[in-house]
Specification:
single chain; 410 residues; alpha+beta; 4-stranded mixed beta sheet; 16 helices
Amino acid sequence: MAFNILDAVKGFLSPDTVGKAASYLGESDSSIGRALSGLIPTTLLGITSKAEMDGGDSIMDLAKRALNTGILNNLGDTFSSAGGGIPESSPGLLSAVLGDKVGGIANAIAQFAGIKGSSAASLLGSIVPLVLGVLGKHAGDNGLSGSGLLSLLSGQKSSFQNALPGGLNLSGLFGGRETERHDATHATTHTHTETVHTEKKSGSWLMPLLLGLAAVALLLYLMKGCNGADKEEIRTETPVAVPDTTATTVTPVTPTRESLKVKLADNSEIDAYRGGIEDKLVNCLNDSSCTAGKDRWFDFDNINFEVGSARLTAESQAQVNNIVAILKAYPKAKIKIGGYTDKTGDDAANKKLSQERADAVLAAIKAGGANAAQLEGAEGYGEDLAKIAEDASDEERRADRRISVQLREK
């Protein structure tokens, strides 16, 4: 069986390890899991980019260094009271692999997962050595050279890109490559023209400051509890600003969406957002002039998946439950689930991923108690219906990446 890098790395991140990290950092398990879902593919994209620049030799050297730190055996100690699991070499590894992108990545992860900037930096300081260590072990076990390691990384690059969760904005950090996966960031009618963004937590700590890589190294040092620093004091301090050395402008914060109660035909109500999929779908069901059919699509705006898989995140369940409630309130309605990608990456891989994710959403709706007679299947279209050119900007291609509901009957 071919070696899957994503799966190999995730194998080291057991629920127990995630729980230890959450407890140590003062975050929830779900938030840490969400952060890791973005950090793993992001780190792999950074490593691949570095390998492509020099033929893989420097990454091979870094992988050997990381392996020699014992990170693969000591990951469970990273977030212990001793704080000794983060290798002393972490700042050097971060600098060598990600360069001036460290601050931007940590800031994006913190914003995406809703965690403190210090927590994101600490996680980054563990994941980079872990991924390098996994690569170092595989290379050593299989006698790979630097070029062989490069070939392995390049061959799985599209899977790294596809694994980036929706809502994680790393646009431009890797030379304009696709670094933001939004499977469902637009809620529209069949014309697919009206954009709706998911709500994001905001705060002053989200604003990237030009503090430089040295600040990240210092932060990691402090997170390890050096010089007798009290761990609990660090965890409960005011969230710190995460350094971002990639730009001089402040990243704009997405405006908060307007919450509303959507009343259904059975007089029950669901919590949703104005202009979201629930609002639009129910309006259509209540409007006699809004016809059902093959062209009547509504895009999910809060459906995400775990890294490298078709497993829905816990946060996605709320929107799944809302769809189930709508179907129960409108028993004549019948729907189909569609999955889509943009034109970047391998065609076959895009088709497979879109089908798996469409199937996963359909299965979740069934599991939520929806009447099977109202569900008319799921289909992954991959990039077949993508309209935006592959060489367009990531922002332009975003509309092609989504999971949608087709209202077939009402």
